[in-house]
Design goal:
Elements lengths: L1 H12 L15 H7 L2 H9 L1 E9 L2 E7 L6 E7 L12 E2 L13 E2 L9 E6 L8
Antiparallel strand pairs: 1-2, 2-3, 3-6, 4-5
Helix pairs in contact: 1-3
């Protein structure tokens, strides 16, 4: 699953052509959920100014803009062995691929183990009173 999260995050944030070479009826529920995730498909189809923001050793951060409201999409990739990324000061509205939040801005403390990645939407104010 980590590999599938990684690939969909990477392909979406850098706007790779999304093609599926398989037999759709044979997909499990998890794979189908990745291929039909509306938020991830939105990042892929609508985001602008997609770019690698930073590469620090084996940590890579990609960002993109949401043209609808100037929010930022952020994808963090950890390529190191047993090292963890700590994103405790990050604020974000949506877990996007993994649905890690209820959809409201919260402080997050997360460790990203080897080979794991995540894609989230980062906003300063979602305008919803939270």
């Amino acid at each position: 699953k980590d590999e599938q999260y990684s690939l969909m995050s990477l392909w979406s944030i850098f706007k790779s052509p999304l093609m599926f070479g398989g037999n759709l009826p044979d997909n499990d529920e998890f794979t189908n959920s990745l291929l039909t995730n509306k938020e991830v498909l939105y990042v892929h189809s609508q985001s602008t100014n997609n770019r690698q923001f930073k590469r620090d050793g084996n940590r890579i951060i990609w960002t993109a803009d949401d043209p609808q409201n100037n929010d930022k999409f952020v994808a963090v990739f950890n390529l190191e062995g047993d090292q963890f990324l700590n994103a405790e000061k990050a604020l974000y509205r949506s877990g996007t691929i993994s649905y890690l939040t209820t959809g409201y801005g919260t402080k997050m403390e997360t460790d990203i183990p080897e080979g794991s990645k995540f894609l989230c939407l980062a906003v300063t104010d979602a305008g919803d009173g939270y």
